[in-house]
Design a protein that fits this description.
Helix content: 55-70%
Largest sheet: 6 strands, parallel
Oligomer: single chain
CATH superfamily of the largest domain: P-loop containing nucleotide triphosphate hydrolases
CATH topology of the largest domain: Rossmann fold
Structural class: alpha/beta
Number of strands: 8
Mean pLDDT: 86
Number of helices: 16
Number of domains: 3
Order of helices and strands: HEEHEHEHEHEHEHHEHHHHHHHH
CATH architecture of the largest domain: 3-Layer(aba) Sandwich
Length: 343
Amino acid sequence: MTAPSGRLDVVAAAKTVIPVLQWHQVRPAPVILITGPETFLADRAGRALRDLLKAEDPSLEVSDVGADSYQPGELMTLASPSLFGEPRLIRVSNVEKSTDAFLSETLAYLEHPADDTYLVLRHGGGVRGKKLLDALRGGLGGGIEIACAELKKDTDKQDFVSAEFAAAGRRITGSGIRALVSAFQDDLAELAAACQQLLSDSSDEITEVTVERYYSGRVETNAFKVADAAIAGREGEALVLLRHAVATGADAVPMVAAFAAKIRTMAKVSGTRGGGAPLAQKLGMAPWQLDRARRDLQGWTDEGLAHTIEVIADTDEQVKGLGRDPVYALERMIAVIARRGDL
C-alpha cells in the first residue's frame, strides 16, 4: 500500500482544502484530524464523535493507539475487517510525537482508507508530523480537521459559556457569564463543570446572584475580585480578600498577573475619547471592558497609573523569587493601588 512519493509531495505542498470545523461541529469522516493545544476541547470533540458513532451502531469497535509508542503494522491490523463487520473507531494520541513507522504507514493508509473505519488523529502542536498533516489538509484520505485553539481571551471563554447554556436551551445573563468566567479563569474543564452544575439549577435564568450562591468562596477569592476592590479604593476589603485567597491556596504570581491585566487595560483606555464598539475594537477589547475601564479610571491620574505600573512590575519580580515575602509584596502593591498610585 506504499504510495508513490511524487503524489505525496504534491499533496503535502497543497493548501488546506478539507473542512476545518470547531470542536462542537465534529462529525464522522474517514479521517478526523484534531489539532490545537486546548486538550479539554479536543477530548470533548473525541467523546462527541464516539457517542455519535455508538448511537448509529452500538457494535462500534474502539481502539486506542499512541503514535509515540507505535509498533509497525498496528494501524493495518486494527483497520482490517473484523469477522462480524463491526465499524471501527481508531483513536491515535500524541501524533506530534509520532514514530517514523507511524508516519510512513499512516501516509500509506490515507491512499486507501478502510471501509467503515474512522481514524482520529490527535495532534497537539509542533512541527513533528508536518508531512502527514499537509497531506491530510490537502485532501488525501477525505478527512476533516477539528481545530481546538486555546481559549485565552475572556471573550472567548464567555462565548464558550454562552454556547453551553444556549445548547441546553437555558438563559444566563451577561453579568452571570462574566462572574462565572472570573471565578474559573484558569481552568476550562472546571469552567465547563461549573456550567453543567448551574444548568441543573431550577431557576429560569442564571444570574450573577446564582453564580455567587454556588461559587461564593471561589468568586470572592478570585484574583480579579481582589483587584476590583483595590482599584475601587477599598483597601481593607482587598486585603481581606487577598488573605482569604492566600489561605485557600491562591498563588502570588497569577495574582499579580490579574492586577497587571486590569491596570494595563485602564492605561490603554486612559486619554481616549468616544466609545462604543468602534473604539473597543480599535483597542482590542469588548465594549463592556471599555465601559468598565472607564469606570475604574475615575479618580486616577496618569501619574498614578504610571507609578502603579512600576509597583506592579516590582511586585512581579518580588513574588518570582527576588523577594523573601510574597504576601508582604502583594499587600504593599494593594495599598498603592487602593490609593490610586498616590505618590
